[in-house]
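cron nightly-structures :: item 1 of 1
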Amino acid sequence: MNEPANLEFSLGSYRTIVSFSKDFPTIPQGSSVLVVEDEHTARLFPQPESRRVVVPAGEEGKSWNTIERILDQALNRGLDRGSLFIGIGGGVVCDITAFAASIYMRGARLHLIPTTLLAMVDASFGGKTAINFRGWKNMVGTFYPAERIWIYPEALRTLPERELRSGMAEVIKAAMLQDEELFRLLETIGERAEGLKELPRNTNVQLIRRSLQVKAFYVTQDLREQELRTHLNLGHTFAHGLEAATHFKAYTHGEAVAWGLYRALDAGVSMGLTDPSYAARVRTLLTRFGYEEKVSGVDPEEIFEAMQKDKKKQRTLRFVLQRALGDTLLTPLDPALVKEVIARGVAGYLKYPAPN
């Protein structure tokens, strides 16, 4: 099968090329290349020890300590701003490699090879870089798009089913934002009840490509998230609250996003804003992919308190909600309603009835 054509995007003064590859991309040789991998990708796609940094897998890797290790290696090897930083891994590796590249000598070159579905459709593209700080997710970061992103769909075969499902939540979000055809494809996949590892390569390519095109609609117009790009945060304010309240350990990012989508639908229906039939359609899709509408082992009040520190909050809590597929808006919500919506999404908290 022929590889799909490259995708090329202009993001402010930056240009990003996304390439799909049948084989694992060839890493450039030479002394001016620094490769960042996590413990998992270091085993699957090993690079020479002399020019790589292996970082912890998972959210604990998004720290100042990790960034210092990368910068120390770059400095010790005499790299300059013309040198190339390459991140090979999931969303965490993409975030920290891009952040390190963005601040090293005010900006080194950056290529990313995402190896998880979530990183392929979201974390690697769009220019957001970040680390966690004092328990809060993505509190310190920059905007720094990669000049090249290599998509190697076969890497998805190496992932456990839970990790694939985590990434699929971002694909669902992309479809909700503006792609009815992608949404119908997801419904078809969900109806088959097959393992995500069994999806044909061309289906994976289509999911990734269409998700990137949706994201590009927003980031090419609003790289620094002044207004339009905030629509990509659909479900994420709730999700970040859940992640922080559970110390980034109980749920994957995608599982938290799926829960956040449930909560956003609940809030919209409660306000008479979201079409109930559309909300039911999305809930059915989320359920088919195995996402639970209720979480457990966490106090709703802790989720609410964590949401107060979400980096997207201004003076009041503002949430991305939808009227229907492709009809999205940013709106403040009454804190009392937010607490009700959160509580309805936590098992054992039945104080508030669900909306009709």
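cron nightly-structures :: done
The chain has two domains: 7-158, 161-344.
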